[in-house]
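Tokens for chain A. Residues wanted.
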């Protein structure tokens, strides 16, 4: 299974079909060719799950907020809050990406929206384009942690018995911590290199910018407040988010027309189709691996490396970090999580805390070369080559790793909020 999957990836086969081929090879060699009749059932069962409805809806939400002028209003408000200073625009980038993450749950969508607004002004203020592109890519990766998160939705489906509301609540403080880990390095680098002369910057009016940003700021409050109060489920929250985004984009900011909405529906459909194909064909891989005992054997092999939980935890984090440099978040969850479930059960690791650690690791992978999807988005908008950003990307990777280590050593950073809200976060 793994050889066929890896070989297909090396040949350039898309990850969805590489997963399907690996699963089919496992069925033929380990079971019986007659069992190939289960392919249709497995692909259907993989996506015939109610919580998955939230994924295309949150993808649509991200596209709506990206095109509705939300990023521009948030940037102006953040500039009014931070004021003219060395590194001010860099701090604005981090703050806006954290707020945008509470709307879309998608790092690439946030990276595109913020880069379109911020890159011209950062370049004018003296920031090098490679630095700006790497900063926006790394800051937007926090969207995978800040609720609502598409990756956490998928994790709650792959790992049985995990409350999605608890995952959403657990991701909030680690997401903020990951964003804040970028603030001090950005300010220090800007001051050291003389980027952004404060005397050349103007501070927008705080009251005016706050009023204009209020509809955008209310979006995360609406989603998280509705979940906490029980007004709607996480899946229904996605519907509420789409509806609110359309109202804001069409009637408040007036940046969207009905023609634009039709185009966004088509774009969201194509992106969602890619995601669902990956999930459906990964179902073949998951079914074959479970039936053959492949995942159990792999877990036992990892256990044989060391009986110490922390040693294995570090090895797993390194493995996931490497996977994050090569694969997207959805593929990583579908491939690696089934292998890790026996390890979580063996060591009694809290599944909510462990899911947040995986998400933080995958977030780092989204802007770490060679396959850095957020970085691909920002460098394309900046008009520069990807390799020019490698040094800055590795620098931000190290700063965000410090946040990951803190959450690993102090699980309460992730678990305190869901426990206070009364969600189930207990161990296996």
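Reply:
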């Amino acid at each position: 299974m793994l050889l066929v999957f890896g070989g297909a990836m090396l040949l350039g086969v898309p990850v969805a079909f590489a997963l399907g081929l690996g699963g089919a090879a496992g069925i033929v060699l380990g079971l019986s060719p007659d069992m190939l009749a289960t392919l249709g059932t497995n692909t259907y069962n993989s996506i015939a799950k109610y919580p998955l409805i939230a994924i295309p809806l949150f993808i649509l939400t991200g596209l709506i907020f990206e095109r509705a002028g939300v990023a521009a209003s948030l940037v102006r408000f953040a500039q009014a809050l931070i004021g003219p200073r060395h590194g001010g625009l860099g701090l604005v980038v981090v703050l806006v990406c954290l707020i945008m993450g509470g709307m879309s749950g998608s790092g690439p969508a946030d990276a595109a929206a913020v880069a379109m607004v911020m890159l011209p002004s950062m370049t004018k203020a003296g920031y090098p384009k490679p630095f700006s592109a790497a900063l926006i890519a790394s800051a937007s990766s926090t969207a995978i942690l800040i609720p609502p998160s598409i990756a956490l939705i998928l994790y709650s489906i792959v790992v049985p018995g995990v409350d999605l509301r608890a995952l959403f609540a657990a991701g909030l403080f680690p997401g903020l911590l990951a964003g804040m880990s970028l603030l001090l390095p950005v300010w220090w680098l800007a001051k050291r290199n003389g980027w952004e002369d404060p005397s050349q910057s103007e501070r927008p009016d705080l009251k005016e910018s706050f009023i204009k940003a209020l509809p955008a700021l209310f979006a995360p409050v609406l989603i998280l407040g509705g979940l906490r109060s029980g007004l709607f489920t996480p899946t229904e929250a996605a519907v509420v988010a789409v509806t609110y985004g359309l109202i804001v984009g069409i009637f408040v900011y007036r940046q969207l027309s009905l023609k634009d909405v039709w185009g966004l529906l088509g774009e969201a459909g194509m992106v969602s189709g890619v995601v669902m194909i990956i999930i459906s064909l990964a179902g073949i891989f998951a079914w074959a691996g479970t039936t053959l005992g492949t995942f159990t054997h792999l877990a036992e092999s990892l256990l044989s490396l060391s009986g110490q939980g922390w040693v294995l935890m570090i090895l797993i984090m390194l493995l996931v970090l490497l996977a994050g440099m090569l694969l997207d978040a959805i593929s990583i969850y579908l491939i690696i999580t089934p292998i890790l479930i026996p390890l979580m059960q063996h060591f009694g690791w809290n599944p909510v805390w462990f899911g947040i650690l995986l998400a933080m690791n995958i977030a780092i992978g989204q802007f770490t070369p060679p396959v850095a999807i957020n970085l691909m988005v920002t460098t394309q908008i900046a008009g520069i080559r990807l390799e020019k950003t490698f040094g800055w990307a590795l620098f931000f990777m190290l700063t965000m790793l410090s946040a990951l280590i803190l959450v690993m050593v102090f699980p309460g950073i992730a678990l305190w909020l869901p426990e206070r809200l009364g969600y189930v976060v207990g161990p296996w």
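The chain has a mean pLDDT of 86. The radius of gyration is 22 Å.
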